[in-house]
């Protein structure tokens, strides 16, 4: 395309397949249209190209758009509706059926709480497709649903009670006019009862009981009226803003446009009023009385001239619409919306005490609306209560926590369990770059938002210059192959970042040998880290977890982390006081952790290459052999 020029096109995306389908439907194109190839597929293009400097640019482009619409709409609209209908059907088939009660369980750092956000949004708003949105957009939607009360988050703990969760008697302080205070006790609803009551509230929508008389109806009636007048050789005359003058409609073109002339002269100019532009004006000006300058305000909406002609047609149509009876508004009941209660660390509370008799009511067939529905009388309010069928419960459970063993058996039977395991593959640099690519697939590669995220990721991974040079070619290859068809486009390149994928796999393999897989380390501790920030994560998260797992047995911790992180203390003979006592404590070995965060750390190890002053990077190399 020539610089500073405009082309009017109709694009068909998703490659040649759609273009071939549309090509067959359109048949031979009029002389003023042509097929052409473009980046994402094919286009039907208007042969006339327009320069940005043309004085009548807007008018000409609008005419070209009308030409394109007239030549394609009737032939394509049925097929487009069919495709859309099929996609909606596929969407319904792909709806995820979420269990009413589910628990995500796994070792710490495997994304249990992270994934509750995804699941809660999917449940509360099924039309929100996670794969089509960035993480920020997903969190924004989560916040919106939380602000509406559709998603509620809570955490169980040792002090949580039935009174906090269902209902209980809580003290309140009342103060009268003279400042005297007294304590009163009221029944207060708990977290679960509040969200249950919200989920039970009926929803209504105001709807019209009479089918609305629309612009389309008025336009069709006008065209019929015009044709009748033309048959009688008595053209329909429309009033204009100037008294005693008007415009007569002398013809209706093949494209459905109206042809108007002033009533005072047969030789005067013919004005054309198109359906599409008149509809835009109708939407912009439902009340013509508010218009102060017709020429200026109409031109801002549709461009061009002919303001008087458009005003006369619009005035006729508006009067037709006003003559129709006012629609009666009725209240229609709507289906219930899904609600989600997230219970983080569900195993940390005394589940039997917190749920009480509700442990039975949360079963699917015992929910309200089912044949086997049950209700109970609550002990404090003495009111009937049942669990709504549109309330979903998502719990999280840390398998490394010893309180898992105490999880109520009744609760286990009523929840479906989904295991969340460490995913070292999420730390793979090639996959991370590809994931970013698809997250921003709608953006151009010089888009500032995409470039900002790409620069952050490249800096995090320590991307080589070779990759930066070749990335454009690889992007084209990824786009050509399509999403999900292939992976590993960037695996051959070198990265400056520590191989976190291998590091996590190595640590977890050793933990599983020494304890079990339930005490693994999650990938979350490595996500978003570089060679510097991982050091803090190592000492604040990973090593403390290992100390907890092995109850301070530094020998086993050393088997996981290696000599680069754990060293044997030298036993001093004078460590104990002088006292006659037979013991073997002096023979016990003591260990200590090497803290590479301390700049004064001077740890020397004898390795194959000789004595080496250790640092964090060398210690990691030693850990991974």
UniProtKB/TrEMBL annotation:
It comes from the Bacteria. Residues 338-415 form the ATPase dynein-related AAA domain. InterPro entries: ATPase_dyneun-rel_AAA, Methyl-DNA_Rec/Restrict_Enz, P-loop_NTPase. It comes from Chryseobacterium pyrolae. This is AAA family ATPase. It holds the Pfam family AAA_5.
